[in-house]
Amino acid sequence: MAEVPPSPGFSTTIEALRLREWLIGPGEPMLVIDQFYADDFNLVVDDRADVHVNSKDGRFYLGWFPSGRPGTDREGWKIAVTGTAKARGYRISFDTETPADVVAAAVTRALETSRQV
User: Fold this and answer.
1) Could you point out which of 3, 4, 27, 113 has its C-alpha 20 to 30 Å from the C-alpha of 99?
2) Distances (CA, A) of 56 to 20, 40, 53, 66, 116
3) What is the pTM of this model?
4) Burial class of residue 73 in the structure, from the number of CB atoms within 10 Å of its CB (0-12 exposed, 13-18 middle, 19+ buried)
């Protein structure tokens, strides 16, 4: 008996189609901020109560804007890593309502990929 080739597209089960519960709401921002230490990072809280964290070498930046970053459409978090002469850097933005757990996971991964040279 010949094996039936898989059909194109997604296949699923009734169980997979059941509703899921998703984490929503901004959560606890200290899950993100607590990942940084004074030995390697500078932290500044400005007059709007926005929090800015940057690496001592100036190549990593995290901004938390609880009321939204000025001039944006509710940007609540900004992560930026400056590139080098050989490779471009990157920027990631999250909405003010993005759960801090999700932002913390992105920050954790960004920090894990860094190394001292």
Assistant:
1) 113
2) 41, 6, 10, 24, 11
3) 0.81
4) exposed
Q: What is the DSSP string of 60-84?
A: EEEEE-TT--TTSSSEEEEEEE---
In terms of DSSP H, where are the helices of the chain? 14-17, 30-33, 100-112
pLDDT tens readout for residues 50-100: 999 999 999 999 999 999 999 999 999 999 999 999 999 999 999 999 999
What's the average model confidence in pLDDT over 101-110?
A: 97
Can you say how many angstroms the Cα of residue 87 is from the centroid of all Cα atoms in its chain? 21
